[in-house]
């Protein structure tokens, strides 16, 4: 999960009492605030056996949009700068490339009120009261799945600004998979350019730059849906692309499935890969599940933050005959989260 919304600041006169009565409206305001408010602070991220501390600086200005700097404070130094749709990553030269670190802005798609209404078919929104987090008064809601095909959330947001300050990703009703929480946060009226510049020596790090597509409204590719015979309820193919393999020797088809909130990637390719070296079966790290199988000459890999049975059902339902034919000898494996 990787998204945007471009709405205005919170409307004058909105009250905390109104939010408590309408958790769906509060959720839409959180999604907006994570993108359109200035904030900076220290975040602790925990999943599986991984614990990481990061400093986040997020600025929004009407004239130039969003800029965000994420700096790791534990482990190997890493830093990510996001400006518009450009992502610049500095990381140790011996480390595998990654262009994502968890932040409040990266947690949700652009959840407009209309989109919240759409996903309410598959999720139930409930108020869970108040809490004090990072010295701030916060209001929380749950996003509970209505079936077994998706995870749930518990989210607390600052009562004054609506910026999310704590997020729990939940499986099976009460099993905590991931937690993201601010331990310090402030909301400056202005953030100087200097706060968004790296302090690392670029000559000592590998620099990776990527331009990501502009976010689009949630869409359904009904033709691509037909490539998956038994989609879980609510999931549809929202994006489909064909791109070169990492070794440059062929192409692989990538389909992004979404229910409007969660996202699952499906990769299909024809490969001459010995079955003993190709990724098959299950792999799980924290909330991320992956499933791979071989059907004839087609290698299918499904990866996403969704329950293992959802990932398996999708993987078993892909119509392998429709996969593109390529000539690639490198084994495919699920991407590793970082």
From TrEMBL:
Span list, region Disordered: 319-338
Primary localisation category: periplasm
Keyword 4Fe-4S annotated: no
Keywords: Periplasm, Signal
Pfam families listed in its UniProt record: MucB_RseB (PF03888), MucB_RseB_C (PF17188)
Span of the signal peptide: 1-20
Subcellular location: Periplasm
Domain of life: Bacteria
One term under GO cellular component: outer membrane-bounded periplasmic space
Domain MucB/RseB C-terminal span(s) in chain numbering: 227-319
Comp. bias (Low complexity): 320-331
Any one GO BP annotation for this protein: regulation of polysaccharide biosynthetic process
Record has Lipoprotein as a keyword: no
One annotated GO molecular function: antisigma factor binding
MucB/RseB N-terminal domain mapped to chain residues: 23-198
Similarity annotation: Belongs to the RseB family.
Name assigned to this protein: Sigma E regulatory protein, MucB/RseB
Phylogenetic lineage: Bacteria, Pseudomonadati, Pseudomonadota, Gammaproteobacteria, Nevskiales
């Amino acid at each position: 999960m990787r998204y945007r919304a471009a709405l205005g600041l919170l409307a004058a006169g909105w009250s905390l009492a109104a939010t408590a009565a309408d958790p769906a409206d509060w959720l839409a305001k959180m999604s907006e605030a994570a993108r359109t408010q200035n904030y900076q602070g220290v975040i602790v991220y925990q999943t599986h056996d991984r614990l990481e501390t990061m400093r986040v600086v997020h600025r929004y200005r009407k004239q130039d949009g969003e800029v965000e700097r994420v700096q790791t404070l534990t482990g190997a130094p890493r830093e990510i700068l996001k400006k518009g749709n450009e992502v610049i990553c500095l990381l140790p030269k011996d480390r595998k490339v990654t262009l994502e670190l968890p932040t409040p802005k990266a947690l949700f798609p652009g959840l407009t009120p209309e989109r919240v209404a759409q996903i309410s078919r598959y999720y139930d929104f409930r108020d869970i009261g108040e809490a004090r987090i990072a010295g701030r008064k916060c209001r929380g809601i749950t996003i509970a799945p209505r079936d077994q095909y998706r995870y749930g959330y518990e989210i607390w947001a600052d009562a004054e600004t609506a910026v999310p300050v704590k997020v729990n990703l939940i499986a099976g009703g009460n099993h905590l998979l991931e937690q993201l929480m601010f331990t310090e946060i402030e909301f400056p009226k202005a953030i100087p350019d200097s706060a968004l510049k790296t302090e690392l020596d670029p000559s000592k790090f590998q620099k990776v730059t990527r331009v990501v597509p502009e976010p689009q409204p949630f869409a359904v590719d009904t033709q691509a849906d037909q490539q998956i015979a038994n989609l879980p309820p609510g999931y549809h193919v929202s994006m489909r692309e064909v791109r070169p393999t990492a070794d440059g020797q062929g192409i692989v088809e990538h389909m992004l499935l979404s229910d409007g909130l969660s996202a699952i990637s499906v990769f299909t390719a024809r490969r001459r890969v010995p079955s003993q070296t190709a990724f098959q079966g299950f792999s799980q790290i924290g909330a991320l599940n992956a499933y791979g199988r071989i059907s004839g000459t087609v290698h299918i890999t499904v990866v996403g933050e969704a329950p293992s049975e959802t990932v398996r059902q999708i993987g078993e339902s892909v119509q392998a005959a429709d996969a593109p034919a390529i000539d690639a000898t490198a084994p495919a494996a699920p991407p590793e989260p970082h």
